[in-house]
Design a protein that fits this description.
Low-confidence stretches: none
Oligomer: single chain
Strand content: under 5%
Length: about 170
């Protein structure tokens, strides 16, 4: 493929990755609202949609790596990244100013979107842990209250009597 085609494909791939990461941020906000409203169906829907977006990001990342490898080969560049990839700065130096400016801007936006997504999901993780802790406390209280009647075990299962209950009528 030509250098122009490869740089256009890389630009499109980065733009798609940017859109996917922005979608993850939106989903985290919606998920947090669903958690606040205790809407189990919405939480499940958000989780499924998040998984689909994460799958898309994985596909796009693989595609990006393939495009960068082709660009590297067509430019005769050795890989210089920590994982054997061509770094963006090296690539931008070689592809010319018209495309490199747009790619650099997209890469900066993508980095920012990834960081925002990480922050949003960190907040969501903390909120989920708080709700889970609260529910655990509620369940412990229910089990403790019901255990005085020995209806449930500490594990929340219905208690099975240990032996036959016997009484002796002392009036006769």
């Amino acid at each position: 493929m030509s250098l122009e085609t490869l740089t256009r494909e890389l630009e499109e791939c980065l733009a798609d990755m940017l859109g996917a990461h922005r979608k993850l941020c939106d989903l985290a906000g919606s998920h947090r609202e669903a958690l606040r409203a205790a809407d189990g169906r919405a939480i499940t829907a958000m989780a499924l949609e998040r998984d689909a977006v994460n799958g898309r990001i994985t596909q796009l990342s693989s595609k990006r790596k393939m495009i960068v490898a082709e660009l590297s080969a067509s430019l005769g560049l050795a890989t210089d990244g920590p994982h054997g990839e061509l770094t963006l700065s090296t690539l931008l130096e070689r592809i010319g100013p018209s495309r490199s400016e747009r790619l650099a801007a997209l890469a900066d936006e993508l980095r920012s979107a990834i960081e925002s997504s990480r922050r949003e999901h960190s907040v969501l993780r903390d909120a989920t842990a708080a709700v889970a802790g609260h529910l655990s406390g509620v369940m412990t209280q229910i089990v403790n209250a019901a255990s005085t009647a020995r209806t449930y075990t500490a594990q929340g299962r219905v208690a099975v009597p240990n032996g036959a209950v016997a009484t002796l009528d002392m009036r006769h």
